[in-house]
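Sanity check

After download, print the first record. It should look like this:
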Amino acid sequence: MGFSTDAIHAGQPPDPSTGAIITPIFQTTTYYQEELGKDKGYVYSRSANPTRTALEKNIAVLEKGKYGLAFSSGMAAIHTVSKLLKAGDHAVVSNDVYGGTYRLFQKVMNDYGLEFTFIDMTDLQNLKEAIKPNTRLVHLESPTNPLLTITDIPGAVEICKAKNIIVSVDNTFMSPYFQNPLLLGVDLVIHSSTKYLGGHSDVIGGMIVTSSEELYERMKFIQNSIGAVPSPFDSWLLLRSTKTLAVRMERHNYNAFEIAKFLQSNISGENRANAKYRIKNIKRVIYPGLENYPQHEIAKKQMTGFGGMVSFEVENFERAKDVLHKFKLFTLAESLGGVESLVCHPATMTHASIPKEEREKNGLTDGIIRLSVGIEDVFDLIDDIKQALA
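Expected structure tokens:
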């Protein structure tokens, strides 16, 4: 089936008891059992719930995987992946991951005897050199948040498989519409379903998808044991949202590409002569769809679109603050992936937990501004950017 067909139907047959087309919200904690040891697959909703089951099947199909697991947040999903490790194990991680991921690994899981090395994954030689005899996991974002750096995923997989290392990819920024890491050889795909999967800024959630039965059974045990699962209503909200994922991602991608090209043209001076607002002092535009983007060719090979996130850099923090407070249509807020456009200052918001010297070493300066481009009319968004940067 095509993506949009699967998004609407996968895991969601009409309800057998009523014929309802939309999967019901099974708002229950427990289930009737005819006799001891005989149930219908559901005993207690922390362990399984029919609405959550439908969601897990739906996202698994969209990610081209066999098994899906839903969580109460993206961080709960990443925490579950980290629980595949034991004290004394080592993991290699992209150096500019989401700040919450860095915080979990460095400030929580380190206390349990796990070791994490953060490297620049754009050069796979760094990965080869970082792997140790006790390395059990390589976790990467591609594209990363917020610098949108791309890792050669098949290349990383080849290195790791030779050493029997699990590879997990946070695919939040691309969604399964634009990238399917399982088809590129990875073991685990992670999503903050709060973002594009949800798409309406009204639900918190996380997902893991795999085709490995062994990993699935272990993570399902962890999911049930820890209990960080979404409610039936949250699961239903996400099922509602994935039905429109394809059309939303197309619009996010179109708008972001137009904005990136507009910003880039102003750096080069092409539009300044006739511009109503003179845009000044943009140091760089960060978007994988631009031909001058360092990993543009790799992005084209492993992604079918470039997504709805655009970052750009101004000269310093004071200039960034001035720009951020002048936006009218873009809303200054955490998060991303909703139908509405948001603007964020990663250094003081999403990535504030990362030490300043680490951020700047990775290229995340105080002048970086991140746009989560929504699905509004693109000319309105560009006009807002013009006046904010003037």
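If your output differs, re-run the checksum step. Summary of this record's structure: The first strand starts at residue 67 and ends at 71.
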